[in-house]
Design goal:
Length: 160
């Protein structure tokens, strides 16, 4: 299953990008034996539309353009549910085992996602009750995808 991270907003070079890239590089190496291939990060610039709802619709349309027709969409949203890393890893494995060919994890812009995109999502997750800066969310997503592969591989990286 191909894994793509979709992000509204561009991440500048610096320590945050380096850390996110480090986890994504680890994901590339650990995912392949498990049938999980990290393909890319798709970054789009934030919409310049004058109203928040229009910005959300425009950005959400671009998410759908990047998503295969039968692809799995995991949406990060403050109204989503919080799950332990093991449950996240199990969901990734379930989608893979169900024969899904694409998993797209979408990080929204400052206004969030359109309601229609939340309705289309297979999973809506929150990274806790707090709001996080875009750069930190990118790091957290990269780390959790890597952690999921280590959990599925039985690697000792994930300890509780």
């Amino acid at each position: 299953m191909r894994i793509t991270v979709f992000a509204v907003g561009r991440m500048k070079s610096g320590p945050e990008r380096e850390l996110a890239d480090r986890y994504l590089d680890r994901l590339k190496k650990t995912g392949v034996p498990l049938g999980l291939e990290f393909t890319s990060v798709i970054e789009i610039t934030e919409s310049k539309a004058p109203q928040a709802e229009l910005r959300k619709r425009e950005e959400s349309a671009k998410v759908l353009e990047a998503l295969d027709q039968d692809g799995v969409l995991i949406l990060l949203d403050e109204r989503g549910k919080t799950v332990p890393s093991e449950a996240f890893a199990a969901a990734v494995a379930r989608f893979r085992d169900d024969g899904k060919r694409q998993l797209l994890v979408a990080i929204g812009g400052p206004d969030g996602h359109a309601a229609s995109l939340r309705d289309r999502a297979d999973v809506v997750l929150a990274l806790g009750a707090m709001t996080w800066p875009h750069q930190i969310v990118r790091i957290l997503v990269a780390e959790q995808l890597y952690r999921a592969t280590t959990i599925l591989a039985g690697h000792p990286y994930h300890r509780i």
